[in-house]
Amino acid sequence: MNPYLAAIDQGTTSTRCLIFDRQGREIARAQREHRQFYPRPGWVEHDPLEILAQTQAVVAGALERAGLGPSQLAAVGIANQRETVVLWERETGRPVHNAIVWQDTRTAELCGRLAGEFGQDRFRARTGLPIATYFSGPKLGWLLDHVEGARARAERGELLCGTIDTWLIWNLSGGPRGGVHITDPSNASRTLLMDLARLEWDAGLLEAMAIPRPLLPEIHASSEVYGVCAGSLSGVPLAGDLGDQQAALFGQGCFAPGEAKNTYGTGCFMLLNTGREPVVSRQGLLTTVAYRLGSEPPVYALEGSVAVTGALVQWLRDNLGLIDSAAEVETLAATVADNGGIYIVPAFSGLFAPYWRGDARGAIVGLTRYVNKGHFARAALEAAAYQTREILDAMRDETGQALAELKVDGGMVANDLLMGFQADLLGMPVVRPAIAETTALGAAYAAGLAVGFWRDVDELRGLWRRDRVWSPTMAPATRECLYADWKKAVTRTFDWVE
Ligand SMILES: Nc1ncnc2c1ncn2[C@@H]1O[C@H](COP(=O)(O)OP(=O)(O)O)[C@@H](O)[C@H]1O
Ligand SMILES: O=P(O)(O)OC[C@H](O)CO
């Protein structure tokens, strides 16, 4: 068995490749950001060819830093930003449009129509999801309706579509020359098109959104050999495919029902393993596939998705110029003792869980002459913590069980001030693992299990190590008072978009 595994983590902000050894230790990594396009308010796009080029570059970069060639890799696994949709030409591999990103709200009208015609309940019962602009199906519908000739070409079988995992796997395995066109249930369960119980595309939902079946990839397991790579990873088995949030759940070793993690990246995503049965939420959470290993039955999760957390820090950096780097937000926030009375509710794409309010837009409330840019930095960080508290409360109400501690990961957990505030606001310890790159690790685990690099999930569980714990120090009365103000601020964002 070759001694190393590669994992590609294609995120909303950047693409990484990490190389791991059998102990799950990181050997090398390379990372590159890609451009974000905002053609209109509420629209967010990525260039699929740029994402592919960055992927190839980080793979080459990580191998070079590790001093390895592809022949020393046992397999490669992929974790990806979910819901984002690419539509491309089967013959040339050329995308017919930029990828429409999960944060994009252009499908609001279509979603309103679907909700009116079919009702939220039908979609939720079949897919575990509410009808919302977040998910892939309506984005694909928009592309078919708005890119000239796309629908006719799709019906003639000239086009292929997929989420980013599908796009990368097709390209890495040969593209127009024999690339495999597949996805896994953790990604497919984010489309509003998959039957959550049968793990198959649902004919009725495809018809409701007028999606031609031949466009769609085959749904395979999350851990399985799909094919082998061509190009710079020539001959390496492609063996793992997980949506990035499910990959983080896997990388955190949350293999048993009741285990959960929260990932703080562009957005924030808490997933709770609920075992072999899907739990339909009454609290605004999503029901989603956590993973499916080979021919085993799937494992499900409840998810609280928050659209904007780290993206708010990026916004302070890129749109307001308040900071030069994301890390600087902590220095700026530390210049003040508290938020100065302001709350930033970053409803840039409406509000996701637990509200699902497409009509909400961002608001900064509580402004006075006292407020300075330090307060903005602090309020931006606190917004991630408040939104997490809302999700944790919904999870507790849904399951009737409170977590003893919260496992965290993602780019923002480098932020000590945020993590300390998070522990205070939840009144529970917040725990960071030794390998904070849990998304890449989860993709490596999935690939490694498929090729026998690791034996089973029990072996993987033994690799998890605690790095740091933040314990709460805030008085409960203070915490609840702050949280009540946050809840008030959230209501100010509602009913903005007519
Ligand atoms: N030290 C930091 N403090 C606060 N936010 C940070 C920090 N470092 C990175 N971020 C934010 O985290 C996000 C990147 O995290 P990452 O997990 O790589 O995201 P993604 O997987 O969504 O691309 C960015 O939105 C960035 O603004
Ligand atoms: O790429 P991230 O880490 O922002 O994750 C994005 C999610 O997959 C969206 O559902």
Overview of the structural elements:
By secondary structure, this protein is α+β, with helices and mostly antiparallel strands. It has 2 domains: 4-245, ATPase, nucleotide binding domain (Nucleotidyltransferase, domain 5, 2-Layer Sandwich); 253-433 and 465-497, Nucleotidyltransferase, domain 5 (2-Layer Sandwich). It contains 16 helices and 23 strands. The strands form 7 sheets. It has a 7-stranded mixed β-sheet with strand order 17-18-16-15-21-22-23. A 6-stranded mixed β-sheet has the order 3-2-1-5-14-13, with helices on both faces. It starts with a strand and ends in a 7-residue tail after the last helix. Residues 11-14, 265-266, 310-311, 313-314, 326-327, 329-330, 410-412, 414-415 line the site of adenosine-5'-diphosphate.
